[in-house]
């Protein structure tokens, strides 16, 4: 069953002192998640701009985006040659949420790419 975005899942992101004076996007969390999963070339201009602004907010957001893009590319093409290196890179990162995903899902990931 597909879960809809609720109003309680809205994340407001405001610019900090080192950012431009232009306000950053306000996006539902699930929308942000799906923007990270989609191919960059399939995003509309405003979606590309939102992703770009989010990635500039914090190095961890940028790193998470890159890891997610690498992972979905492996899944789309069913090429797991780089999976071990990807898992090691995620494990050595500071992204606890992504590490949790890989620890609990690695067996399923390997099976999906076999």
Describe the structure.
- By secondary structure, this protein is mainly alpha-helical.
- The protein has 2 domains: 1-15 and 24-57, no CATH class; 59-114.
- 60% of the residues lie in helices and 5% in strands.
- It is built from 5 helices and 2 strands, in the order ββααααα.
- It has a two-stranded antiparallel ribbon with strand order 1-2.
- It is globular and about 35 Å long.
- Residues 1-20 have low confidence and may be disordered.
The main sheet orders its strands as: 1-2
* Count of domains: 2
Given the helix and strand composition, which structural class is it? Answer: mainly alpha
* Unreliable stretches covering 5 or more consecutive residues: 1-20
Number of strands: 2
- Given the structure, what is the number of helices? 5
Helix content: 55-70%
Shape: globular
Mean pLDDT: 81
Radius of gyration: 16 Å
Strand portion:
5-15%
Distance from N terminus to C terminus (CA atoms, Å) equals 26 Å
Query: How would you characterize the largest beta sheet?
Result: 2 strands, antiparallel
Q: What's the order of the H and E elements? A: EEHHHHH
Question: What is the structure about, briefly put?
Answer:
This protein is mainly alpha-helical and 114 residues long. Helices cover 60% and strands 5% of the residues.
Any chance you could write out the topology, listing elements then pairs?
Blueprint (H helix, E strand, L loop, with lengths): L9 E3 L13 E3 H9 L7 H13 L1 H19 L5 H9 L4 H18 L1
Helix pairs in contact: 2-3, 4-5
């Amino acid at each position: 069953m597909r879960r809809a975005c609720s109003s309680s899942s809205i994340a407001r992101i405001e610019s900090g002192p080192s950012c431009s004076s232009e306000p950053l996007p306000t996006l539902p969390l699930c929308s942000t998640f799906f923007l990270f999963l989609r191919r960059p070339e399939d995003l509309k201009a405003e979606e590309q701009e939102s992703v770009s602004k989010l990635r500039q907010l914090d190095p961890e957001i940028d790193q998470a985006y890159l890891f997610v893009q690498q992972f979905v590319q492996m899944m789309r093409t069913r090429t797991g040659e780089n999976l071990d290196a990807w898992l090691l890179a995620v494990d050595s990162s500071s992204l606890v949420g992504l590490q949790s995903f890989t620890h609990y899902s690695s067996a399923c990931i390997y099976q999906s790419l076999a």
